[in-house]
């Protein structure tokens, strides 16, 4: 323990300020610090005021040790505010400064522990790196500053000249670029117009292509339809040719049938004439000799004669007046001899349509020459001639013969009508085929 110690820390601050007028001043601080040594109270055995001083010294040194430890650990927080000593040394320990520390030890054996602690503290402080101090260099020679500024001014003038030259060249280049841009804009406008024209042309080309495809498909369809129509036309022509051959054949057959019909009609007229003549002869013979007994030869030949006589005459009335006259005579006969059948006149006229004369003759034979009395009664030939026995009356025989002839004639006429209907149908078919052929030739 130093007997003459002030038992306190001493800090000497030397501040140096320099600079030029109208310029910021520069300041430098120099700290000269004499730290009081640590003191063990057990050894010094101080009391009272000195004990308090020893406590403050040890506390400040402990705070300085904590700051040094934090700086050694590169801690984010350094406790400079724990002590007034560390707070005053904040700029020296952590700012833009250079710090140098001298540790004093006592070589006596009695201060062995204090010496060890002081050396450990010095070792720890030695490891601390607070960084390099930055120097604030100020030009002390104004002439050097002026020369330097003049040199910089010359350099700036040269740079300005070069900049002006570059500016001129850039202006020329800018003009060329503007001209190129203008040309490019015009070219782009023309290109845009060309592109628009090309788009329109492409669209038109696409529409024409689509239309061409549709027309091609339509043409193919029409071609197929034309081929089908040609095939159908060929078939129709073949059918027409076949039908024409059939028509020619049928025409030939019709001609043959018509010739045959003409021959049959001639034969029929001849037969009618013969039958009418035979009927007339028979009626004349009956009127002339009604009571004569027929001979065996006459009896043998009577069926043939009666058949010829009762042959159904054919031929239609010549006019409506003749038909009306025949109708009135038929009604008169029915009203006189058979009143019950007067209502059947229309049926009889329709049944014997075209053969009204034949109907009138038959009714006259039955009612006038057959012994039928007015009112519908009839008498036999025996009673009329006054003979006791009588055979079948002659009118009855003539009626049966006439009925047989009428049936055969009806069958013949029905067959003739059917044949005429077939011929008519064939003519209609031939006419239709001719019309089809004429339409095809016209097409």
UniProtKB/TrEMBL annotation:
InterPro entries: Kinesin-like_fam, Kinesin_motor_dom, Kinesin_motor_dom_sf, P-loop_NTPase. Residues 290-304, 375-411 have a biased composition (Low complexity). SUPFAM superfamilies: P-loop containing nucleoside triphosphate hydrolases. PROSITE patterns: KINESIN_MOTOR_2 (PS50067). One of its GO terms (biological process) is microtubule-based movement. It comes from the Eukaryota. GO terms for cellular component: microtubule cytoskeleton. Signal peptide: none annotated. Residues 1-128 form the Kinesin motor domain. Gene3D superfamilies: Kinesin motor domain. Pfam families: Kinesin. Residues 170-196 have a biased composition (Basic and acidic residues). Residues 431-443 have a biased composition (Polar residues). Residues 163-196, 271-322, 369-443 are annotated as: Disordered. GO terms for molecular function: ATP binding; microtubule binding; microtubule motor activity. Belongs to the TRAFAC class myosin-kinesin ATPase superfamily. Kinesin family. This is Kinesin motor domain-containing protein. It comes from Minutocellus polymorphus. The lineage of its organism: Eukaryota, Sar, Stramenopiles, Ochrophyta, Bacillariophyta.
